Amino acid sequence: MMPTEKAIEIGRELAERWTFHLETRQPEPNRLDVLLTSPDDLVPFAVALRVQRIGYLTAVTGLDPGPESGMLELLYHFCQGAAVITLRLQVPQPFFHVEFYDPLPTSSPDRSYTYVWLGDLMVDRLRVSLQQPAGASGFSMRPEAGAGSSGPDGLLYRTVDLGAAAAGKQLPFEIRYTKTDARTSADILGLKAPDATPAAITGASKALPDWLLALAIYSGVIGAAGLAGTLWWRRRTKVLETQSGGGKFCTRCGNRLAAGRFCSACGAPISGN
């Protein structure tokens, strides 16, 4: 079995020779944390560890820095004897959006609606946002909200922050207003329905690809080797170049290549094998 010090040293060298230098931390003599800056580096770096025979994926955990950060830190732990190398990656924190529709009687111009937060779960921050119907007057809301602000669609939006809410505590929200125009807000303002064509995936949506979640259920990284190879070559179109002197050099770390399928220094696959 590889000595603990050797495994930690190899892990640090891989991080230093990556496409761009990756920050590392060593909280304990037998532990090394590698801070990944992109989800695209996760599988290739995991494969590089396996090429160097540095253990196997033993656990995947998550750290929540708090609701204000809006991020979640994923930790992928690789073990080789007493040595533990952890790949740390921050991704946008997932959230749930639940939408439902409740009928509102419109036979009378005086309208009211009550919604009750049942408090099934404890929440750190409860915020209520309300879209005021176009043409409404005498609008009131309990708990009281501010004057509101106009949105890009021309409708008025009111928001009230209620802070933390304990589990089991019900909170009612009461709304009252008068509306004499029977038309909907969309008809009154001439609003168009949104385009049903899905928008292109950009920004934070790309930060958590499907394969990243799938990796968590693998018992070992070997199961992801085929996927790793595909992602590796999609991201890097360069092939090994022959430098002056006739020898081949690794395009990732620059070291001279020996016979074999992978670079002996960083674990990168050798083109043509």
Written account of the structure:
By secondary structure, the protein is an alpha+beta fold. The protein folds into three domains: 4-94 and 211-237, Beta Polymerase, domain 2, CATH 3.30.460; 110-181, no CATH class; 242-273, no CATH class. Helix content is 16%, strand content 31%. The chain is built from five helices and 13 strands. It has helices spanning 4-16, 42-51, 185-189, 210-215, 225-235, and strands spanning 23-25, 31-35, 56-63, 71-80, 83-92, 110-117, 123-132, 137-142, 149-150, 156-165, 171-178, 241-242, 248-249. A five-stranded mixed sheet has the order 1-2-5-4-3, with helices on one face. The longest helix has 13 residues, at 4-16. The protein is elongated and about 85 Å long. Residues 196-246 have low confidence and may be disordered.
Proportion in helices: 10-25%
How many domain units?
A: 3
Largest sheet: 5 strands, mixed
| Count of helix runs | 5
Task: Please render the helix and strand layout as text.
Layout: H1 4-16, E1 23-25, E2 31-35, H2 42-51, E3 56-63, E4 71-80, E5 83-92, E6 110-117, E7 123-132, E8 137-142, E9 149-150, E10 156-165, E11 171-178, H3 185-189, H4 210-215, H5 225-235, E12 241-242, E13 248-249
Parallel strand pairs: 2-5
Antiparallel strand pairs: 1-2, 3-4, 4-5, 6-11, 7-10, 8-11, 9-10, 12-13
Question: In short, what is this structure?
Answer:
With 273 residues, this protein is an alpha+beta fold. It has 5 helices and 13 strands. The relative contact order is 0.15.
